[in-house]
Structure formats: C-alpha cells, structure tokens
C-alpha cells in the first residue's frame, strides 16, 4: 500500500473513532499501529498531530454533551415546576438529576424542622445506610450545618479528615456507615442578596476522594434554586387550598342563611373552577367584574396595572375608568385633573396608600369612589384589586370581592415562581450572548427559540444601573417590570440588561423603563437604550452601545433618566455604533440649511465665519466682505431659527462640530 494511502487510512480511522464515541485510549493506538506499519518521518508526525487534534475535538464534544444534558435537566425541572402537583415527586426528581449529572454515588436534600430546631433528610438517592437516612443536624454542625448557617456552598474532597467542619459523633457515624468521602453541599435559597432565606440544602457525595469543579458547584446551585421554588410554590398552593377551604366554608354558611347567599356561593365556585382550569389573573378580574357588575383592574404592589380593565354588565362598558387605561402605558389610579387622564406616579402612590389601608384593616376600603382590596401573600403586598361602578357594595358582594383577592394572590405567586425560574434560564442565554456572541450563533438562536425568544427578530436593548447600596433590588425590579410580557432581563457587569417586548424607540423605551424601575427600586435608576438589533452579534453590539450611552448619561449628571445615543447630540455620534455624521449635521444645522436652500441666503457660511473669527463681528464682516449690519441681521435670523440659546457654550460646541463635519464630508 502506498504511504499516502496508508496515512489516509489512519486518518479515516481517527474520524471513525470520533464518530463512534470511542474512549480516549483507543486514539493512541492509531499512531502506534502506523509506526508498526512502517509509517515514519513527516507522515508519522502528521498522524500524531491529527491524533492530538482528534482528542481535543473529542473533549469539546463531551463538554458540549455534558452541558446539553445539564440544560435539558434544568428545562425538565422547570417543566416539573410549571406542572407541580406532588412536591415529593419534584424533589425526588431534582435529587436524582443532581446525582446523575454530577456522576456521584449519592445525592440528598435536607430541610429544617422548625419545631425541633434542626434539619432532617427529606429525600435521598443512592443511599444504602438507614443510619445516614435518619440523620438530624443542628445548625452549624457538619458540612450541611455550615451550609445552612452561612448560606454558601461548601465542598470537601475528604470529609472525614477536613477540619473546617464541626464534627459530631452522630454525623460522623452516619457518614462512615454510608461510606461517603467527598461531599458538595449548596443552600436552598428563597430571595436574593442579603435578604435571602435558607430553607434547606442539596448535596452530592462520592464514596471516594474527589474535587468538585466550579461548573459542578454552579450546576448543583441551579438545581437547588429549582428545589427552593418547588417548596415555595407548594407552600403557596397549600395556603391557597386553605383559602379555598375557607371559601367553601363561607359558601356553606351563606346557603343556610338566605337565598341571596346562593349567588355568592356560585360566584366562589366559579372562581375556584377558574383557578383549577388554569385561569390567569385577567380571567379572575373578568369573572369578578361580571359577578359584581362593575369594572375591575388588578394592580401590582407599586400601583401599576397588571391587567386591562375588565368591564361587567353594570360597569363603564366601552370606556375604561379614569386612571386605569389598560396596560399599554404606565397609567396611574385616579383622574386628578378632571381630564379623563391620570397623574402617573402620584396616582400610583394614591393606590398604594389605599392598598396599605386595606391591609391594615383586613378588608376592602373605599377610596375616591372605588373599592380597593389588598392582594397579600402572608404580609407581603403583591398588589391590589380595584372595583369601580359599585359604590354600594353590600355584605355578600363585599366578601366576594375580598375573597377574590386570595385567589388573585395564588395566581400571582404561581406566575412569579414560574417567571423567576424561566428568567434564570433566560439569563444564562443573555450572559452567553454578551460574552461570546460569535462562538455559536446558530446555537444561541436555537436556545433562544426554545425559551420563546426569537433572537433573529429585531429587539431593543436596555442597560440599567443604580446606586451600589440598592443594586441588589434592580434585578428583581427588572423581572417585575417585564412581568406579563415576553421580555427578558439578566445581570451583567454590575448592570442589568433588559430586552423588552416593545415597539417603541430606544429613547422612549429607556425613559419609560427608568421611570418605572426608579419607582420599583425606590432609588434613581438610569437606563440607556439601543437598537433595534437582530441576531447574536448585532444584539451584543447594541448592548455595548447602550452601555457606552449609560456611562455618558452618568457623566452628564442625568442620573435617574433614560435616553439613547441618538438623543445625546455629538456625544451620540461618538457613542453610536454607526456614527451617523450626516444625521447629526442635519439635526444640528437643519433649519439653517433649509432656510439657505429656500431663500438663497448664506446663514451657514455666516455662522462658520462668526465662529472662525472667535465671535468677532468686525473680523467676520471682513472675511465675508459685507457690512457689519448684514452680519448682525444674519445672526439675528440664526437666533430666530435655532432659539435664543444658540450661542450657549454647549450649543455653540455642537454647532461648530457640525460645521466642521459638514466641511469634511463635502471634501
């Protein structure tokens, strides 16, 4: 066989090994067989180099396969949460996936026992020791106790010899009986930042020494977050079942007392059935509006509408009540100026005060002719229900209105839990999009499509920042701001990126986001916008432009405002990705250029001479070869066209820059 044919055969063998997923040691035999077959010199070196390249490709493929398996598990877990029926089944699934993905001998999950003041094993997978399965840990004891106490992940390659942990006889005996050596534990956290609450811990463990990688720690943390959401959602559903049981009890009392109570019973049954059939908050609002024959709107905790106004038979019909206005714009609550519009933030604040009064009294209250009922989850204010068109709300109807807030709170809690889970997964996509948009564009687009985000469709890109002491609130506020739409947000480099589902201009979208995020965070939030852009690289470029614009807004002292590069004058030309010089010149000198074209005058030339002579009228008239009065008259016309502050330092700088750029562009 000719040498070149022999080399090709060995190379084909390497490809066959790659295609079959052969173990790494099989690749080394290719060069050995080639050497035995008489291949030497450059051909043998070529085969050895190809072997190394094949091993690298094999490693990359295995890494992608592992990442795909991890994401699939996270998606499956999120799906389990969305269809949550049995908490134990979801927790067992999470623990089993943790063991499978990390390749450990066992995995387990612990939860606190508030009555006993310790923690216990809730779910185990791969455990064979009854002693270990019945372990109980005090706060601070062992690796698990330290995880619960500090709310931080901990890992040890050999627990029995690791002196970082407080060893106790019972814990060490259980670990020894199970034969565990390497252990990784992460907390189950509700909330983020310093306000997060540890409600348990998730562990993966091996019976041989092992060092856990940062990727494995991050993966287990993601699964722990899903477990925390499952537990929190189950608690919310338990609370809802209690609330629904109370509704049923109230219905029984109403049926016994009078025929009028029959209507209330049917109303409660209708709401309960609506929830069980998967109804949304807007469906509840529509049902309550129909039952109470009024107009109902659901607002969030900040006083901004979550649903369009639902009209009942006795309500306003085709026109929304003053102050609601649906969800297309950040409208408020009360028509304070008599125009049928709203006063924005002031009216939202009025609604918040009314909702606080409702929470304090535990009943619906009347405010400015409307009934307001707080929507609560424990003591947390989730929002409020507002009913108009029914000034005389009698006892049964009033109780129905108040009970409907409980159903609304259940739906809001479920929506929030699912939204938080989805946003975490979408946040991973945004992070990859910004850090490596060119690595796998097609893969990014496919991942986005799986999450309901079409990256090939034009999107606006917003970047928001706030003061360091309240920065931990911004990510949650962004989720709340986008709640109910198809937008997505993610933290990146100390800021939060938002991709809203909006057709507005970048400047308008940034301004609206700045106003509402400032309200939600309780501190000024500055927002910069760019785009629209479509595709991974253009979206990453739009983010970079928005980040530069955000820095410019901060330097210019526009803290708490929103804007885009196109609104920053010559700074926008410098910051923008496309450097629209012609657009800047037209925007700055447009009135003068149009006047000269229409009248045949020389206002632009006169303005250039005036600035070129340092603002000297005498020198300008000599350069223009006209009388000084002519220069004065022309500058008066410039002022009439550009405004009285045309010669202020800031405007003069932009005018001079536009004049210079115009000369350069004309060659």
How would you describe this structure to a colleague?
There is one protein chain. The chain contains 22 helices and 16 strands. The chain has helices at residues 3-20, 24-36, 41-82, 87-102, 130-133, 142-150, 169-178, 214-257, 260-276, 281-292, 345-361, 395-435, 441-450, 471-482, 506-521, 536-555, 570-575, 581-599, 603-612, 617-624, 628-642, 649-665, and strands at residues 106-113, 118-125, 136-137, 154-156, 182-190, 197-206, 295-300, 310-311, 365-367, 370-377, 380-388, 459-466, 488-492, 495-499, 525-533, 562-564. It has a six-stranded antiparallel beta sheet, sandwiched between helices. The protein is flat and about 105 Å long.
Task: Give the mean pLDDT.
Answer: 78
Uncertain regions: pLDDT < 50 for 5+ in a row? 318-343
Please count the beta strands (DSSP E, at least 2 residues each). 16
Distance between the termini: 69 Å
Spatial ordering of strands, largest sheet: 3-2-1-6-5-4
By DSSP (H or I, 4+ residues per run), the number of helices equals 22
Backbone shape: flat
Q: What Rg do the Cα atoms give?
A: 33 Å
Residues in helices, as a percent range = 55-70%
The fraction of residues assigned to DSSP E strands is 5-15%
Largest sheet: 6 strands, antiparallel
Structural class: alpha+beta
